[in-house]
Design brief:
With 282 residues, this protein is an alpha/beta fold. Helix content is 37%, strand content 16%. It contains 11 helices and 10 strands. It has a 5-stranded mixed beta sheet with strand order 1-2-4-3-8, with helices on both faces.
């Protein structure tokens, strides 16, 4: 609010709805020295700009032998909720984990959103910042002054000794609610907020698994080639000997996102499903 009045039409540009056009414009501006921000509105619309994201912005530093940088930040909401249906509710964040040179940022609190967004803007690499649609109205303390949270640093948001639950964005909220339920049954779950998927804080995850001996990964994306698969592979390779039970993954059902509110709730992970799976692990 007020950005256009403060900075004017040369810096704040209301473009036509052409994602390929304005993402390409921002990539060019970033290559020429600006710190550009493109707002896609919904992550689903990234499909219309994948050539600019994947083949241009993500590869610019490599193709120029390091002569050009890409301080481009792409912002888009994602996630299931509000009957956005099949074209406006997808959780496509794992796509961008697959692309070399891209930062993938998924905050779960207002404080983290400001600090991570600021860090992403000042990073010289392409960054995708993804707030969840159901967190947009969440309130929390946010300092007025500038601050920056390092990309690639996860946070233990609840200490525990019985199992580790790894999540990001809205799934952190669901995991914390599940941990509260489990605590009433004398089960202490440790909850890790990844905050960024790329870079991924492997050390934080592994330290927790060494302590608890059990790992559950909760993600709103689909299971195949997803966040859960990547985290599970890392833990299996690095700290397999510390596991006391098989790694479990909880994901959204592999279907197109429905319009129906009851079906939305049925296909995605939630606190009840997390708590139920945790009990089977124990």
């Amino acid at each position: 609010k007020g950005l256009y009045e403060e900075f004017g039409p040369e810096r704040v540009i209301d473009t036509p709805i052409s994602e390929g056009g304005f993402v390409g414009l921002c990539a060019g501006a970033a290559a020429c020295g600006s710190r550009a921000i493109a707002d896609l509105m919904f992550i689903d619309f990234a499909t219309l700009a994948m050539d600019q994201i994947l083949n241009q912005a993500a590869k610019m530093a490599y193709l120029s032998n390091g002569e050009l940088r890409m301080p481009l930040t792409i912002s888009a909401i994602f996630g299931i909720g509000g009957s956005g249906a099949a074209h406006h509710s997808q959780s496509l964040h794992p796509w961008f984990m697959y692309i070399p040179g891209v930062r993938v940022v998924m905050p779960s609190t207002p404080y983290d959103l400001k600090g991570l967004l600021a860090a992403a803007i000042l990073d010289d690499n392409l960054a995708i910042v993804l707030p969840h649609r159901l967190l947009l109205n969440v309130r929390g303390d946010v300092p007025a002054e500038d601050y920056f949270l390092p990309l690639g640093q996860a946070k233990v948001v609840r200490e525990g000794k019985d199992l580790t639950i790894v999540a990001a964005s809205l799934m952190v909220v669901e995991a914390l609610a599940a941990a509260q339920t489990l605590a009433a049954e004398n089960v202490q779950a440790e909850v890790i907020d990844l905050r960024t998927l790329m870079p991924l804080d492997e050390d934080c995850i592994c330290r927790s698994v060494v302590k608890t001996g059990r790992l559950m990964v909760v993600d709103e994306g689909y299971a195949p080639c997803g966040v859960g698969a990547e985290v599970a592979a890392i833990v299996q390779r690095k700290v397999f000997d510390y596991l006391d039970a098989p790694i479990e993954r909880l994901h959204t059902a592999s279907v197109s996102i429905p319009y129906s509110p009851p079906e939305e709730g049925w296909i995605r992970p939630n606190a009840e499903k997390i708590a139920r799976l945790a009990k089977t692990m124990l």
